[in-house]
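A brief tutorial aside. Many learners find it easier to grasp structure tokens once they have seen a single protein encoded end to end. The record that follows does exactly this for MFS transporter. Read the sequence first, then the structure, and try to relate runs of similar tokens to stretches of the chain.
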Amino acid sequence: MTEQPARSLARLRPGRGAPAATTHTADRAKPHRERTWRTLSPLLRLLILTQLAFNIGFYAVLPFLAEHLGTAIGMAGWLVGLVLGLRTFSQQGLFVVGGALTDRYGVRPVVLTGCVLRIAGFAWLGYAEQAWSVIGAVLLIGFAAALFSPAVESEVARQALRREEAGGGSRTHVLALFTVAGQAGAFVGPFLGAVLLSADFRVVCLAGAGVFVLVLSGHLWLLPRHTPGRAVRRKVSGGAATLLRNRRFMRLCGAYGAYLLAYNQLYLLLPDEVERAAGSQAPLAWLFALSSLLVVTAQLPVTRWTADRLGLRRSMAAGMLLIAAGFAVVALARPAAWTGTAGLLPLAGFVVLLTLGQMLVAPAARAWVPDLADDGRLGLYTGAMSSVSGLIVLAGSAGAGSLLDTGLPPAAPWLVLAAVAAASIALLPHRSERGQRSTAR
């Protein structure tokens, strides 16, 4: 079945049936000081809590997977890397599939199917002892996320847009709450997994599966069969070819990919530099905790401040400049080769600036997608942004890693990524108003 949101989106977009005066500027002129959560619809609350639960279950298992594969199962290092890479590919690379299925069948069946597959994948992983079995389990886990993540993200964006047009406040406030929920889950999940790991990795996996059993049960009961704001079911036109010809959307994907490439240096450049400065990677956990706590505590105030002053393009541009500054801080300090606390301070500055940039970029990018998507294809476009950006990260991370092995000055990788982040601003579309269709290029 297809649930086509043409009627609702036509009503929501200036130039397609809605008053053109309803814009981000008008929304900012009316301050929304009340708590965003209290004004959300039950569906939006459910979807945001879903993101929290998803990440608790996921991050209760993922941080401990590599160690389990290397020690308990005895996999070689290259095979562990392959397994982790396959998990990322089966998830991020297939987001576009989940988004397209959401457009075709609606949110409820895609989310429920994703939950069932994630439960099966975690249970399978807990009992997998051979390489082929582990690979099968992680592919299933990744594909499950490729189903429900774009379904949830696209529906949050759609409902946030409807709420904004109804005078309920900026959509970026809702998407900021969504980001906070995800970071809170990423923060809580590893603690849950660490406690359960004292028993057994299998217990960790079964606990992760248990979280998704609860999510599945809640959605069977609470997720409406007909999503508010969606019109009658009918076949939607357009698809991947139209998406690839949408230059403004592809430029947004390019800029978002540059942001994700920068963010992924938390897992590549940062650990290498922490090891050099501290002699171990023990401080890395504290830097990750610093990043998560910043998002949980500061995301909403930052979003409220920027919503009153910046549009979507300016928010993303400011965020990329902050990210570039974070890389520049380490690049400037690196020639001194400080160690100990002095060596960690520039890295803490990098994490803070990168996280502040993330707070500006991520909600704005998600909020921009509905303006650029074709009617009835928001799920496809939401998934495609993750998939295209994931390919950029895959290629960019390989390049960043090669910079570590070329004999260049130690500051070179940091300077290159600072330049990439700053240059990505030029990719951002120059107009963010709703109603500017992708065909008007």
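Self-check: The mean pLDDT is 80. If you spotted this yourself, you are ready for the next section.
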